[in-house]
Here is the input.
Amino acid sequence: MDWMLYSGVLGLPWWGCVIAAFLLTHITIVAVTVFLHRHQAHHALDLHPAVSHFFRLWLWLTTGMVTREWAAIHRKHHAKVETPEDPHSPQVLGINRVLWGGVLLYVKESRNRDTITRYGHGTPDDWLERTVYSRYVKLGLTLMGLADLAFFGIVPGALIFLTQIVWIPFWAAGVINGIGHFWGYRNWPTADASTNIVPWGILIGGEELHNNHHAYTTSAKLSSKWYEFDIGWMYIRMLEVLGLAKVNRVAPVPRFTAPRPIPDLQTLQAVITHRYDVMAQYAKSLKRTSAGTRDLPGKSRALQTVHSMGRELMALWERSTASKEQLVHRLQDWCQRAEASGIPPLVEFSRRLRCYV
Here is the structure.
């Protein structure tokens, strides 16, 4: 009887069960970030069919999530971010509702057939998906629960199974969707409220670097700065070395050359490609302008000029009917006015802008 209650087939001590629970939940986290998020939702990488199916099977057993539903809801989040149509924005719904009730918001949106139809394209639609994974969602959880009880004993197994059930709803649906749009630091001035929760993406597979992801949505790598670590990217690189994954895209790294006398089409393309880096540098110029004109009579005029020219610069990569030639002309005119403004940080920034390649 004690064997059935506390030991199970493996007969692990209590600390062994704790390690087992962590490993099992970590595999689930990897399946979510590598398979569901980067591979399925954004096609940032391709996975070998065997690896892809392992993740599908594991998620069926441990979460009951349907690939098409998860990808569709996440894509809608990006398309409608921080609006009333966003399935889980704490800026709209409040942090407490998303943090503690994120799984309920997910279930509610998964029942919206329009969301699944519109945003769920390109996800698995084979025999297994139609007849097993999508149809018998609770069966996978039941099998995993029985396996936990058999391997770890009734009491430890039940606790491990409970941990597996709540792990993803809390950390992914609650923490990432909630805190990841409410608290943290920002590398990139995206239009949404996304944040990097901490610079070391280990516990949630790299998803902690949420602002980086919103800036470069289709990047397979979520870390951007030298001090940031994305454990999901480490696993992707390991799979790539083994020939089991192929990275399609990563965030572009700015490159510079000597300043061009006049910005051309290549400069325009580089500025648009590296727009988040451009605006991050522009924000620093704004701070230097504010600090440098603190005691000068023309402070307000200088700040107003920097603010208005910042809006003009952003208009270069927003939706526009202007031709490439017109946009190049606008960039040339912008740089000319910036360097004639007499505002040192703005002059310096304009010269740096002409260095992007």
User: Anything to note?
Assistant: The radius of gyration is 24 Å. The first helix runs from residue 2 to 7. The mean pLDDT is 91.
